[in-house]
Amino acid sequence: MQKPALIAAAAGCLALSFATPIQAATADDTSTEPDLGYCPRPGSEVVADSAQGGMLGDEAAAAESTEEVLPANSVPVLAGTQDNSLRVATYNAALSRDSAGDLFEELSAPGTEDATEVARIIQTVRPDVLVLTGIDADAGENLAKAFNTNYLAVGGEDRTGVTYPYFYTHQTNAGVESGADLDRDGTIGGPGDALGYGDFPGQSSMIVYSKYPIDTAQIRDFSSLPWKSVPDNSIPEDFTELERDILPLSSVAHWDVPIEIDGETLHVLASATEDVSATPHGQARNDDQIRFWQDYLESDTEYILDHRGNRGPLEDDAAFVIAGSLKADPQGHGPAEPKAISELLKSDAIVDPQQERTLPPTALGRGVLPNNPDAEYHTAPDPDTDGETYRADYVLPGADLSVTDAGVLETGTAHNDVYRGYFGIPSSDNLHHMVWADIAIGK
Question: Which of 39, 66, 82, 390 has the fewest C-beta atoms lying within 10 Å of its C-beta?
Fold first, then answer.
């Protein structure tokens, strides 16, 4: 499969230079009628709908670049993308609050500490397409715009802002009440009884940001696909008929988001899941959620049904990349079993770049990598074991795509002070790492 137009479009416009500031975004004044099933902060305006992704104003899309002299101690830590490469990344931002509307209220103005640190990490890697997980999306596009304008677009002494003219977010299953006792605690209600673990609808969900237009008319959302419709599913035997009927496969979301680059399409297959240990059925569900992407890449899986009523898998010749938080490690680290993720990584349909930790030159040769040889691929803390980590987040291009570079951005860990302060990003309670891959299509 050849995609020369996509290569040409990416050439020259994907530089990662710290000396190329991007103007802050200015949101347009248009809005649409709300069509979200979750509950925004009272008084907030929700502008997302089921068929459209967000787009900032023309000023952001046509942002000019000006030269900037950085401080002498500011050293780029990542090489820029090659001329024919597109940088795709995923990051678990761990931007979640206890109540609906709290995060949106904070992001409505600059200055929230953890959100600023997340923005610094994104500004360091500067992906062209970003699947941001672990972020409350209860306020829909308003929240996506607020984070884009007040944090991502705002630079500092050691970095420049980055603006995404296009983004997509929508209702997920996290925090949506099911009406059943799914966690088997004897009562109905609470985060364990939601369709996906969460205290309120939209908690710890997902946003896709892009520097290129999103084909909103062709987005496919599989979040409502019933778990019971998956052939040979792993639904526990003790589930009642009601529970089998109401529980979707996705604990958070599965989206196919087509990105348009000079007339060509890259399908971003974005997903996020709850932690396997969050519910009694978490392991079984996680296995099938990972297997879904394998089924989506097969030509004969007719059980797949999206939110528009369209049936069937991804087209055979489509260019794609799987990106998001799968919460499973092929080596068996972390709470999940390795079988499903191992089978996906061995699939002939995808390329596993096996991203390793990206360290600055000052760290090389100082014995900073962990003794565990698998840990260089790890992206997240083990929710069940203090101090342990596992590979939870993935950027997996299709087999027809060439990977020109890839990595895991090491930003510090509370368990080993030798990592603190790398890239000028202070350690925080968020021990997740960003995963990225530079891909060229048609090589």
Answer: 66
Q: Which two tokens stand for residue 363?
A: 């760290």
Q: How far apart are CA 268 and CA 328, in angstroms?
A: 20
User: Using an 8 Å Cβ cutoff, are 433 and 395 in contact?
Assistant: no
Domain positions in the chain are 4-441
What is this structure's pTM? 0.81
Give the pLDDT of residue 355: 86
- Total residue count of the chain as it appears in this document: 443
Total Cβ atoms within 10 A of residue 181:
16
Give pLDDT < 70 ranges for the chain. Answer: 1-83, 358-373, 412-430, 441-443
Do residues 197 and 275 lie in contact, with contact meaning Cβ atoms separated by under 8 Å? yes
User: What fold is seen in the domain 4-441?
Assistant: Deoxyribonuclease I; Chain A (3.60.10)
Cα(293)–Cα(126) distance, integer angstroms? 26
> What is the per-residue DSSP string for 415-434?
TBGGGTTGGG----S----E
Query: Looking at the DSSP assignment, which residues form a beta bridge with residue 403?
Result: 439
Place of tokens 């569900």: 285
User: Could you please report the per-residue DSSP string of 96-155?
Assistant: --SSTTHHHHHHTSS--HHHHHHHHHHHHH--SEEEEEEE--TTHHHHHHHHIIIIIT--
SS3 at position 363: helix
pLDDT number for residue 69: 36
Can you tell me the distance from the alpha carbon of 315 to that of 296, in angstroms, rounded to the nearest whole number?
9
**Cβ atoms within 10 Å of 337's Cβ, excluding its own:** 16
CA–CA gap between residue 333 and residue 381 (Å, rounded): 10
SS3 category, 156: strand
3-state secondary structure of 238: coil
| End-to-end CA separation in angstroms for the chain | 9
User: What string of DSSP letters covers 28-75?
Assistant: -S-------SS-PPTTPPP--BTTB-EE--HHHHT------PPPTT--
Give pLDDT, residue 56.
53
